[in-house]
Design brief:
The chain is mainly α. It has one domain: Up-down Bundle (de novo design (two linked rop proteins)), CATH 1.20.1440. Helix content is 84%, strand content 0%. The protein is built from four helices and no strands.
Length: 122
Protein backbone atom coordinates (compact mmCIF):
# COMPACT_ATOMS: atom_id res chain seq x y z
CA UNK A 1 0.00 0.00 0.00
CA UNK A 2 1.31 3.45 -0.95
CA UNK A 3 1.69 6.03 1.80
CA UNK A 4 -0.98 8.78 1.52
CA UNK A 5 1.67 11.45 2.14
CA UNK A 6 3.61 10.07 -0.83
CA UNK A 7 0.43 10.21 -2.96
CA UNK A 8 -0.02 13.89 -2.09
CA UNK A 9 3.59 14.58 -3.08
CA UNK A 10 3.05 13.10 -6.51
CA UNK A 11 -0.39 14.66 -6.87
CA UNK A 12 1.20 18.09 -6.42
CA UNK A 13 3.98 17.21 -8.85
CA UNK A 14 1.33 16.19 -11.38
CA UNK A 15 -0.77 19.27 -10.66
CA UNK A 16 2.16 21.63 -11.24
CA UNK A 17 3.03 19.80 -14.48
CA UNK A 18 -0.55 20.07 -15.75
CA UNK A 19 -0.56 23.75 -14.80
CA UNK A 20 2.64 24.44 -16.77
CA UNK A 21 1.21 22.60 -19.79
CA UNK A 22 -2.05 24.54 -19.57
CA UNK A 23 -0.06 27.80 -19.43
CA UNK A 24 1.67 26.79 -22.67
CA UNK A 25 -1.65 25.95 -24.35
CA UNK A 26 -2.96 29.35 -23.23
CA UNK A 27 0.10 31.17 -24.56
CA UNK A 28 -0.30 29.71 -28.04
CA UNK A 29 -3.73 31.36 -28.28
CA UNK A 30 -2.65 34.84 -27.10
CA UNK A 31 -2.47 37.75 -29.54
CA UNK A 32 1.00 38.15 -31.03
CA UNK A 33 1.49 41.77 -30.00
CA UNK A 34 4.78 43.35 -29.06
CA UNK A 35 3.89 43.79 -25.38
CA UNK A 36 3.08 40.11 -24.96
CA UNK A 37 6.40 38.72 -26.22
CA UNK A 38 8.53 39.43 -23.15
CA UNK A 39 5.68 38.73 -20.74
CA UNK A 40 5.05 35.36 -22.43
CA UNK A 41 8.73 34.47 -22.23
CA UNK A 42 8.79 35.21 -18.50
CA UNK A 43 5.49 33.36 -17.99
CA UNK A 44 6.85 30.20 -19.62
CA UNK A 45 9.97 30.27 -17.42
CA UNK A 46 8.25 30.93 -14.11
CA UNK A 47 5.35 28.50 -14.67
CA UNK A 48 7.76 25.65 -15.43
CA UNK A 49 9.96 26.51 -12.46
CA UNK A 50 7.10 25.98 -10.01
CA UNK A 51 6.99 22.22 -10.58
CA UNK A 52 10.70 21.82 -11.29
CA UNK A 53 11.61 23.24 -7.89
CA UNK A 54 8.92 21.21 -6.16
CA UNK A 55 10.34 18.02 -7.69
CA UNK A 56 13.77 19.04 -6.42
CA UNK A 57 12.27 19.70 -2.98
CA UNK A 58 10.96 16.13 -2.89
CA UNK A 59 14.49 14.88 -3.55
CA UNK A 60 16.04 17.21 -0.98
CA UNK A 61 18.87 15.88 1.15
CA UNK A 62 17.83 17.83 4.23
CA UNK A 63 14.82 19.55 5.75
CA UNK A 64 16.51 22.90 5.18
CA UNK A 65 16.98 22.14 1.47
CA UNK A 66 13.34 21.00 1.20
CA UNK A 67 12.16 24.20 2.87
CA UNK A 68 14.32 26.32 0.55
CA UNK A 69 13.06 24.61 -2.64
CA UNK A 70 9.41 24.89 -1.62
CA UNK A 71 9.98 28.59 -0.93
CA UNK A 72 11.36 28.93 -4.46
CA UNK A 73 8.28 27.14 -5.84
CA UNK A 74 6.06 29.63 -4.01
CA UNK A 75 8.14 32.55 -5.30
CA UNK A 76 7.86 31.25 -8.87
CA UNK A 77 4.09 30.86 -8.43
CA UNK A 78 3.85 34.49 -7.30
CA UNK A 79 5.91 35.55 -10.31
CA UNK A 80 3.69 33.51 -12.63
CA UNK A 81 0.62 35.26 -11.27
CA UNK A 82 2.30 38.61 -11.93
CA UNK A 83 3.05 37.73 -15.58
CA UNK A 84 -0.45 36.35 -16.06
CA UNK A 85 -1.86 39.68 -14.93
CA UNK A 86 0.29 41.46 -17.52
CA UNK A 87 -0.42 39.42 -20.66
CA UNK A 88 -3.06 40.82 -22.97
CA UNK A 89 -5.91 38.62 -24.15
CA UNK A 90 -7.15 40.98 -26.84
CA UNK A 91 -10.54 41.21 -25.12
CA UNK A 92 -11.36 37.68 -26.26
CA UNK A 93 -13.83 36.28 -23.73
CA UNK A 94 -12.57 32.68 -23.85
CA UNK A 95 -8.98 33.82 -23.27
CA UNK A 96 -10.04 36.10 -20.43
CA UNK A 97 -11.87 33.17 -18.77
CA UNK A 98 -8.81 30.94 -19.17
CA UNK A 99 -6.55 33.66 -17.79
CA UNK A 100 -8.79 34.04 -14.73
CA UNK A 101 -8.82 30.27 -14.22
CA UNK A 102 -5.01 30.16 -14.40
CA UNK A 103 -4.71 33.03 -11.93
CA UNK A 104 -7.02 31.17 -9.54
CA UNK A 105 -5.03 27.94 -9.95
CA UNK A 106 -1.65 29.58 -9.37
CA UNK A 107 -3.06 31.37 -6.31
CA UNK A 108 -4.15 27.99 -4.94
CA UNK A 109 -0.66 26.61 -5.61
CA UNK A 110 0.83 29.58 -3.75
CA UNK A 111 -1.43 28.83 -0.79
CA UNK A 112 -0.49 25.14 -0.82
CA UNK A 113 3.22 25.95 -0.88
CA UNK A 114 2.67 28.51 1.88
CA UNK A 115 1.03 25.84 4.04
CA UNK A 116 3.91 23.43 3.36
CA UNK A 117 6.38 26.15 4.32
CA UNK A 118 4.53 26.83 7.57
CA UNK A 119 4.52 23.16 8.54
CA UNK A 120 8.14 22.57 7.48
CA UNK A 121 9.76 25.55 9.22
CA UNK A 122 13.37 24.78 10.07
Amino acid sequence: MINSKQNKKYDLEERTLKFAKRIRDFIYKLPKVLGNYEDISQLIKSSGSIGANYIEANDALSKKDFYHRVKISRKEAKETRYWLNLVRTGEREELLKEKNYLIQEVTELMNIFGAIIQSARV
